[in-house]
Amino acid sequence: MKQFLLCPDVLDPQQLAQKLSSDRAGAFVSFEGRVRNRNNHRVVQRLEYQAYAALAEIEGARILMEASEKFAIEHACCAHRVGTLAIGDIAVWVGVSSAHRDAAFACCRYIIDEVKLRVPIWKNEHYADGESGWLHPDNTPVDPG
Questions:
Q1: Residue 145: pLDDT above 70?
Q2: Subunit composition (predicted)?
Q3: Is the Cα torsion angle 88, 38, 125, 119 positive or negative in sign?
Q4: What's the pTM?
Q5: How far apart are CA 14 and CA 129, in angstroms?
Q6: 95 - beta bridge partners?
Q7: Structural domain boundaries of the chain?
Q8: What is the percent of the chain where pLDDT is above 70?
Q9: What angle do helix axes 101-118 and 53-70 make, rounded to 10 degrees?
Q10: E-assigned strand segments in the chain
Q11: Is the pLDDT of residue 53 over 90?
């Protein structure tokens, strides 16, 4: 199974991980990207993620297919939240099962890096001072000018 999901609701890592179970897999690796309370020396109160869903789902699925061709894995899943997220919420979850740990680690890293680079999902940080700002995938502010 290879699956990319856009999720408006809280992510449940245990439920997501169960989808990746396989008797042939000796390794399972997951990554959780969580909302933190500071970025670029500013206090963050919450995040808002927006996605161009139709394209995001196509590109996300393409990344997972590429990953399965590049690495010897059994299953892979990537779930990304959309909507408003609180501090501590899981914003993105990636899980990979494989016969061996090297492939699982490498594939998990590949998936998160490619998703951040290629999938049209935008992050708007809301700050304690009442301002907000859109960010590039590397968490630097977008210059509105």
A1: no
A2: Heterotetramer of 2 MoaD subunits and 2 MoaE subunits. Also stable as homodimer. The enzyme changes between these two forms during catalysis.
A3: negative
A4: 0.94
A5: 35
A6: 30, 77
A7: 2-135
A8: 99
A9: 150
A10: 2-7, 27-34, 38-39, 42-51, 75-81, 83-86, 90-98, 121-127, 132-135
A11: yes
